[in-house]
Amino acid sequence: MQSETVPALDGLTIRAAGMGDLPVLAARDIDRLGQLYDRLERHEADRGELLIALIAGRPVGHIYLWREDAEEPELREHLPAVPLIMNLWVSDDHRRQGIGKELVARAEADLSGAGHREVALGVHPDNTDAIKLYLSLGYEQWGYGQIATCKEPARAGKERFANDICEIYVKRLNG
Ligand SMILES: CC(C)(COP(=O)(O)OP(=O)(O)OC[C@H]1O[C@@H](n2cnc3c(N)ncnc32)[C@H](O)[C@@H]1OP(=O)(O)O)[C@@H](O)C(=O)NCCC(=O)NCCS
């Protein structure tokens, strides 16, 4: 599934990312370099999709669509084959301009276009800004409580810890 470039808010473009975007993406979001590299690798292998938002050619945000089986057993049990959106991020100087909403809307449109009827996401219970955004877009808590997830991408020989607590939200997608 590859997104086409579509203009969103005035001056904002959202398009599928490529490995060539990594240096600029990492420059804006250096704490997430390893995670972004992992997402780009999955994207290039057609296992998911990394979308980036640009203004005047400069990345100002991103979101990842996880289309593989979930890593967390609770998600595989209660939401089998439901894709996840994750790694939503908007640069500090561009927040509260609707870019986060646009990124989520675009992710949903791509998933809906690919035939998915539901989408899920995990968010830390203290992340009230993000939760407000998701609630405003019609996401609802899934009802099975919080789960522990791994923030770090899986890497051969590297131990991972599921220590990131998440609340799971779900939304039905209109086909
Ligand atoms: C969460 C995040 C992606 C929101 O991006 P954004 O582009 O600022 O969001 P939007 O402008 O589309 O906001 C949409 C709605 O979400 C809510 N919202 C977003 N940020 C908010 C804030 N700081 N305070 C209160 N409400 C907020 C509001 O309801 C807002 O609508 P409004 O501006 O009309 O009131 C951004 O703050 C971010 O990158 N945070 C750090 C990374 C992160 O937490 N990602 C989410 C991981 S689950």
Walkthrough of the structure:
This protein has 175 residues and is α+β, with helices and mostly antiparallel strands. A hairpin with a 2-residue loop joins strand 3 (48-55) and strand 4 (58-66). It has a single domain (6-172), classed as Gcn5-related N-acetyltransferase (GNAT) (Aminopeptidase). It has five helices and nine strands; from the N terminus they run E-E-H-H-E-E-H-E-H-E-H-E-E-E. Helix content is 28%, strand content 29%. It starts with 5 loop residues before the first strand and ends with a strand. The relative contact order is 0.16. The radius of gyration is 15 Å and the shape is globular. A five-stranded antiparallel sheet has the order 1-2-3-4-5, with helices on both faces. Strands 6, 7, 8 and 9 form a four-stranded antiparallel sheet that branches. It has helices spanning 22-28, 33-44, 73-78, 99-113, 128-136; strands at residues 6-7, 12-16, 48-55, 58-66, 84-90, 118-123, 140-141, 147-149, 164-172. The model has no long low-confidence stretch (mean pLDDT 90). Coenzyme A (COA) is lined by residues 88-90, 95-101, 123, 127, 129-130, 132-133, 136. The site of coenzyme A has 17 residues, from strand 5, helix 4 and helix 5. It comes from Fodinicola feengrottensis. Keywords: Acyltransferase, Transferase. InterPro entries: Acyl_CoA_acyltransferase, GNAT_dom, YpeA/RimI_acetyltransf.
